[in-house]
């Protein structure tokens, strides 16, 4: 799915305030702390709480393997002023059915700053520019209006609702489904989120 350009760990995307870069073993402690926060983990399908270190180690290995193969692109979010400091994760993964899916999380101390919309905009631009893909899917728990707002800010439109497995929560939970197609990406309804003032 992703081209050779993204399959090397020197690849990064720079935005006004962020670096999106490959995750590394040095990110382990930040992931344990930030993704392991109950307020973050509760919104994620595959992140248990408490979050064991071996789960993070396996995630890091899988992310790097998928990035190398080009079957997905998982990137750490880091402030431009401190590119070694992970504050969240964003990814696009292929699915057996339907378009590739965008997923993300941001550490609770960084909520409300517009950083996730900045990262989503940047990765969506990379997807449509580099892969020739025609559509991206995303979903947000119905109890997560902040994630819904990020998607709508970045041009995604609601495409229905469903119940999805959340194995780390031990249940199937209701989600809102979203879609962004190439035509909408090429003709956004407003100024891209990454160029707006903080």
Quick synopsis:
The chain has one domain (4-195): Aminopeptidase (3-Layer(aba) Sandwich).
> Which CATH-level-2 architecture?
3-Layer(aba) Sandwich
- Anisotropy-based shape: globular
How far is the first residue's CA from the last residue's CA? 33 Å
What structural class results from the helix and strand content?
Answer: alpha+beta
Please characterize this protein's 3D structure:
By secondary structure, this protein is an alpha+beta fold. It has a single domain, classed as 3-Layer(aba) Sandwich (Aminopeptidase). It contains six helices and eight strands, in the order E-E-H-H-H-E-E-E-H-E-H-E-E-H. The protein has a five-stranded antiparallel beta sheet, sandwiched between helices. The longest helix is centred in the N-terminal third of the chain and has 17 residues, at 53-69. It is globular and about 40 Å long. Residues 192-198 have low confidence and may be disordered.
Characteristics of this structure?
8 strands, transferase, phosphinothricin N-acetyltransferase activity, globular, GNAT_dom, Aminopeptidase
How are the SSEs placed, and which strands pair?
Elements: E1 12-14, E2 18-21, H1 28-34, H2 38-41, H3 53-69, E3 72-79, E4 88-93, E5 101-106, H4 115-131, E6 135-141, H5 145-153, E7 157-166, E8 171-181, H6 182-186
Antiparallel strand pairs: 1-2, 2-3, 3-4, 4-5, 6-8, 7-8
Pfam families: Acetyltransf_3
Organism: Methylobacterium oryzae CBMB20
EC number: 2.3.1.183
